[in-house]
TrEMBL record:
It comes from Gaetbulibacter aestuarii. The keyword Magnesium does not apply. It holds the Pfam family Rce1-like. Residues 111-190 form the CAAX prenyl protease 2/Lysostaphin resistance protein A-like domain. This is Type II CAAX endopeptidase family protein. The keyword Membrane applies. Keywords: Membrane, Transmembrane, Transmembrane helix. It comes from the Bacteria. Coiled coil: none annotated. The chain crosses the membrane at residues 20-40, 52-77, 150-171, 178-196, 208-225. The lineage of its organism: Bacteria, Pseudomonadati, Bacteroidota, Flavobacteriia, Flavobacteriales.
Length: 227
């Protein structure tokens, strides 16, 4: 463990470029994931997913965006006061801090592809899988969720990320398919990106979110009727 911490510090110092902080973080996570895959050799489970299953996973991820305000009342009230939907948004310290210089295009790429793949590979595929070898299912999910929430380094996002980590961990443990969690994670981040689009009229965002809720309601109702 001490060796891992020391190596972590060294890698972060090497790859921490002040003008490309997001790239540095992703590069460090990628290197660590590669090292742990080689040393620990965790059995990461993937499987094929039907198109309809993908659709349901996307809807689930977007639905989480509707539930986040209920779990974060402080942010909800703040955003209502600003005339915005109370959804989880990336930390303003990174988005709007002039000390950070990065490509907005890379940020979108990170939200929709790099982040979900690397984070789920590391926290669910590697950490949760290895913890499961020595701990109970419940303990491994909780611990990996704590690590996952700490990774987001923002108090508001940490709370939501911990709860999302519990859900992601449960789904992975239940279905044994990391690809499913990656898809849900991507759809959650897609909702974040959509909410951050300042050019999108406010009422369109309402239609988008509650349109997702309507679709989910129909799917659940139809499933119950088929029992």
């Amino acid at each position: 463990m001490l060796t891992t911490l020391m190596l972590s510090y060294i890698l972060v110092q090497i790859f921490y470029f002040k003008t490309t902080v997001l790239v540095s973080i992703d590069l460090s996570l990628l290197i660590f994931s590669g090292i742990l895959l080689w040393v620990w050799k965790p059995i990461i489970l993937f499987d094929k997913i039907s198109a309809f299953r993908v659709f349901k996973l996307i809807v689930l991820g977007l639905l989480l965006m509707l539930l986040f305000p209920l779990l974060n009342l402080v942010l909800l009230l703040k955003n209502i006061n600003l005339g915005q939907i109370g959804v989880m948004v990336p930390s303003s310290d990174i988005l709007f801090n002039e000390n950070f210089s990065f490509s907005k295009g890379y940020y979108c790429f990170k939200l929709l592809l790099i982040g979900p793949i690397l984070e789920e590979l590391f926290f669910r595929g590697i950490i949760q899988t290895k913890l499961r070898e020595k701990c109970s299912v419940k303990t491994s999910i909780i611990m990996s969720s704590i690590f996952f929430s700490a990774w987001h380094m923002d108090i508001e996002q940490c709370i939501i990320s911990f709860l999302a980590g519990l859900l992601f961990g449960y789904i992975y443990e239940k279905n044994k398919n990391l690809l499913e969690i990656i898809i849900v994670h991507i759809s959650v981040n897609l909702g974040v990106l959509f909410a951050l689009n300042e050019n999108m009229p406010f009422h369109f965002k309402y239609l988008f979110y509650y349109g997702v809720l309507l679709v989910l309601t129909i799917i659940i109702t139809n499933k119950i009727l088929k029992r």
